[in-house]
């Protein structure tokens, strides 16, 4: 949504300065617990990249909504998600962040053993326990859905509509239900991955990504490539509608040099532009002509967030060994600059000055919609 940035001589601070959430929303452990239960535990969360668990028996574990989630590829090639807790005494079934098993998943505590479909298949002295329903005592399944080359999971027993809350967020941002398909994100290959440990509340990271009022201040490399972003008041329009590369810029790279060839499925209308999408609560998608950048956030505590960032290019680019470091470096610097800013902001959330919150200038007014969404979800 584009903020109304018009200011007249009659405009007052009450018109232009919109209040934020109070500082305690970013620091109070009790608030974070409520968000974990009511947001991360009830919304669709982007868990793992599908290609990372491509072969039978490959698994990954990820912490979401206060739960350890186990994602595993079955013999039928279906990717499934389960709560990573043994039905016997609750021990973690898989203790490593990733790996592979040959046949089954076995709890290392008492050796209860599960098939790749989650069903209980064996346990010491199982025959002496009577006629046990092996499905009932199998691993607890978690709702999952593959999209954009990632597995999304929802812990809630009645998940919200994926089409409305996830795909709809992209459609609303881009204004075209088929536009995201032009990048063929599921068909792209991983060229680079960075994991950032950010000493900041997750909402500060989302808020930062949603606005470009700060771009001229802390992103010199980005505004060189996207000069429209140097205008802090107008930049919000271009975040969702496609900021155009500078006339002397050849590619979305740290020095403006040419990147890889544009993705073959793109049309000229979407070439030489940058699009940014926020999918509540914890996913950012960035679209440029030759690659896609996907951020997955994993809130750990009120003041700590893990962010995993993937740079995805055409498979032939990755397979050829082409140097894409200039493209990777641009957004890696943007990430570092943004996360440094969030870490500088986090201490201020505890200040008396921020007890009742701060303010949003017109270029940031749309962040109030995010604040309203958070409040609605946690009330």
Strand content: 25-35%
Count of beta strands: 18
Strand order of the largest sheet: 2-11-10-5-4-3-6
Structural class per helix/strand content?
alpha+beta
Number of helices: 10
CATH topology of the largest domain: Naphthalene 1,2-dioxygenase Alpha Subunit, Chain A, domain 1
Quote the average pLDDT. 92
CATH class type of the largest domain: Alpha Beta
Distance between the termini: 24 Å
**CATH superfamily descriptor of the largest domain:** Naphthalene 1,2-dioxygenase Alpha Subunit, Chain A, domain 1
Low-confidence stretches: 1-9
Descriptive account of the structure:
- With 379 residues, the protein is α+β, with helices and mostly antiparallel strands.
- It folds into two domains: 230 residues, Naphthalene 1,2-dioxygenase Alpha Subunit, Chain A, domain 1 (Alpha-Beta Complex), CATH 3.90.380.10; 110 residues, Rieske Iron-sulfur Protein (3-layer Sandwich).
- It has ten helices and 18 strands.
- Strands 2-11-10-5-4-3-6 form a seven-stranded antiparallel beta sheet, with no helix packed on it.
- Strand 16 and strand 17 form a beta hairpin.
- Helix 4 crosses helix 9.
- The chain starts with 12 loop residues before the first helix and ends with a helix.
- The N terminus is likely disordered.
């Amino acid at each position: 949504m584009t903020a109304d940035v018009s200011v007249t001589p009659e405009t007052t601070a009450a018109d232009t300065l919109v209040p934020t959430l109070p500082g305690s929303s970013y620091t109070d452990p009790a608030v974070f617990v409520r968000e974990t239960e009511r947001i991360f535990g009830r919304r669709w969360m982007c868990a793992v990249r599908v290609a990372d668990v491509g072969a039978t028996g490959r698994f990954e574990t990820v912490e979401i909504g206060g739960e350890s989630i186990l994602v595993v590829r079955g013999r039928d090639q279906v990717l499934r998600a389960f709560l990573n807790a043994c039905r016997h005494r609750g021990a973690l079934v898989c203790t490593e962040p990733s790996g592979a098993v040959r046949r089954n998943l076995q709890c290392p505590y008492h050796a209860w053993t599960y098939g790749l479909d989650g069903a209980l298949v064996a346990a010491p002295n199982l025959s002496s326990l009577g006629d046990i329903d092996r499905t009932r005592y199998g691993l607890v399944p978690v709702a999952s859905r593959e999209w954009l080359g990632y597995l999304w999971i929802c812990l809630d027993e009645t998940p919200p509509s994926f089409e409305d809350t996830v795909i709809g967020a992209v459609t609303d941002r881009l204004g075209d239900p088929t536009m995201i398909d032009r990048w063929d994100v599921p068909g792209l290959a991983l060229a680079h991955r960075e994991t950032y440990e950010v000493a900041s509340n997750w909402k500060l990271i989302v808020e930062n990504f949603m606005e470009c009022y700060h771009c001229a201040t802390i992103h010199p490399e980005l505004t060189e490539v996207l000069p429209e972003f140097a205008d802090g008041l107008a930049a919000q329009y271009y975040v969702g509608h496609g900021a155009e590369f500078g006339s002397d810029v050849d590619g979305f790279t740290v020095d403006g040099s040419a990147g890889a060839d544009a993705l073959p499925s793109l049309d000229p209308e979407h070439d030489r532009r940058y699009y940014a999408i926020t999918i509540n609560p914890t996913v950012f998608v960035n679209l440029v002509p030759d690659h896609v950048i996907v951020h997955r956030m994993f809130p750990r505590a009120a003041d700590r967030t893990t962010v995993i960032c993937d740079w995805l290019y055409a498979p032939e680019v990755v397979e050829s060994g082409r140097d894409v470091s200039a493209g990777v470096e641009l957004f890696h610097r943007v990430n570092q600059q943004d996360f440094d800013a969030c870490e500088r902001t986090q201490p201020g959330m505890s200040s008396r000055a921020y007890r009742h919150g701060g303010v949003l200038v017109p270029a940031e007014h749309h962040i109030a919609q995010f604040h309203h969404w958070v409040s609605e979800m946690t009330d």
